[in-house]
Design brief:
This protein has 15 helices and two strands. The protein is mainly α. It has a two-stranded antiparallel sheet.
Length: 328
């Protein structure tokens, strides 16, 4: 007997919303549904996409990370200094950049998990620390890199899609496989559903919780490489507000702020919806205040729907039992 894939209807709904936005703005602007316009949207989202993938896992365990924008700025600053001042090749500078992100994320996880400090407070502090270090690293100056880093974001092929976009898609696919097809992913869902039950089952949730914060930091470093590549320069102000965009995309994609439920692929659809909404509003000539109001309304509606679904779902203990039974 062939089993129907779980959540297929939700994926179809997300796809329908995105296609609906494309058709709406295509009707309002004759230049929107063109290869050039759509490839521009695709090439702008790799940074947000990889950060949203990591944020999904953090929200699933019931945490939050407000520092990713500043960590991205710090990683980009290190990348710029390594390539301009130290004359490192891109691959070495990128490795250092991602290592800095990994260290910042791991520090967030260690302080939050080991000391029992809410992740909201810990990452709020890291937000300020990382941004300050970004300014100190670059002396508050933009580092112009140029061709040495621009190749990742240069459109290729007939569709004009950049290598950064394809790398981001691979990260999304890998994140979804980890979440839905591995024991580690099932532990994350169980921790977010009821951490106390996880402890009573004899499983220490601390390593997994620290790991997801470290992974998000690593992906923020990768996002910094993409961001720097697209601009051709390293800006210490990079990533300002990125944490809010990432959280918005993840929530629009259906990941619960309460923890215990989420999908990396649907978070990617959330990224597409936000990017399409912003590009479409720009095409039709909406003012910046109007764009912010409309985007904010969409986010609030998504959060309200999430809260409503959480109340309607009731107890998730049967789900928790199934999760543990499958991992033994």
């Amino acid at each position: 007997m062939i089993r129907k894939p779980k959540g297929l209807g939700e994926y179809a709904a997300m796809l329908a919303i995105w296609i609906g936005l494309l058709l709406l703005f295509g009707a309002l602007s004759q230049n929107f549904l063109t290869v050039r316009s759509l490839s521009t949207v695709a090439n702008r989202i790799p940074t947000l996409a990889v950060v949203a993938a990591g944020m999904t896992l953090v929200l699933i365990i019931g945490g939050i990370d407000l520092s990713v924008g500043s960590v991205l700025g710090l990683c980009g600053a290190v990348l710029g200094v390594a390539m301009v001042n130290w004359e490192w090749p891109l691959w070495e500078a990128a490795a250092l950049c991602m290592g800095i992100g990994l260290a910042a994320g791991a520090l967030n996880g260690l302080v939050s998990v080991r000391l029992g400090v809410p992740s909201f407070i810990v990452t709020l502090g890291m937000l300020e620390i990382a941004r300050g270090l970004a300014y100190l690293t670059t002396n508050s100056q933009t580092k112009y890199i140029g061709a040495g880093v621009e190749g990742l974001s240069r459109p290729i092929g007939a569709l004009g899609i950049s290598p950064a976009f394809f790398i981001a898609v691979v990260v999304i696919a890998a994140g979804q496989v980890v979440l839905s097809r591995t024991v580690f992913g099932r532990y994350l869902v169980a921790i977010g559903t009821n951490e106390q039950a996880v402890r009573l089952a004899g499983i220490n949730p601390r390593p997994a919780k620290i790991a997801v914060f470290a992974l998000l930091g690593l992906l923020a470093g990768l996002g910094a490489v993409f961001y720097t590549s697209r601009l051709g320069s390293s800006d210490p102000n990079a990533g300002v507000g990125l944490e809010l965009s990432a959280i918005a995309a993840v929530v629009i994609g259906g990941t619960s702020l309460m923890g215990g439920r989420g999908s990396v692929v649907k978070s990617f659809f959330g990224v597409l919806i936000i990017a399409t909404l912003e590009a479409g509003l720009a095409q039709v000539g909406a003012s910046e205040p109007a764009k912010r109001v409309i985007t904010g309304v969409v986010i609030v509606v998504a959060v309200v729907l999430d809260a409503w679904r959480y109340r309607m779902a009731g107890s998730n203990f049967p789900l928790l039992k199934r999760l543990f039974s499958r991992t033994q």
